[in-house]
Design brief:
single chain; alpha+beta
Length: 130
Amino acid sequence: MRIVEGSEKPMRHLQTFVILAEGILISVLAGCETKPEQRHYPIQAEVVAVELPKKLIIVKHGDIPGLMPAMTMSYTIAIPKEAESLGPGDKISADLVVSSSNARLEKIVLLEKAKPNPTPAPSKADASLG
């Protein structure tokens, strides 16, 4: 086999082009991975319980149009720090993020702190019993 002088340079350009094209194709295909579809629903709810070690919050929420009727449910907390100061009876707003595999609350905001239950004053009937 005889190599013609000057024919090596176009071959190197072709190899470089093929390598670059492969790299671009791999990058494009990697970006096309199917990601689970996520839907976002703004909600307002009342906190029933918070279980920080389990990263769970139980809330009573109203209807979520296009998703579910009003109910009490537990959700994963995306950022547990957002729920550290929450307790039963607190009113919150949050972004409910739903995918095919889970549902979690993000962007939790305290709207209203629960009012403490005052100790009832003794009635006259209670005083007469003693």
